[in-house]
Amino acid sequence: MSIYLHLQIDAMAPKDANLIAKAYEQTLRTLSVRDGDDPVTEMIAKTIIKVARTGNKDCAAISAWAIRELEIR
Q1: I need a labelling partner for 39 at 20 to 30 A (CA). Which of 6, 13, 72, 73 fits?
Q2: Total domains, the chain
Q3: CA dist., res. 35 & res. 53, Å (int)
Q4: Whole-model pTM above 0.85?
């Protein structure tokens, strides 16, 4: 997990943190990002958090939306 994401979810309710962590991991898998130190992971983490703040509670939808936001794939 990116350091940025870890710091952000520490301040969240466990339910929200779990949702964001799952969406983040799903996005990494979909984009085939394996290196946690890759600078793109922070960009992905920030986008996942931005999308999750819209109130969406479906990790697959958050992941798909984040990928569209990143214009990657």
Answers
A1: 13
A2: 1
A3: 26
A4: no
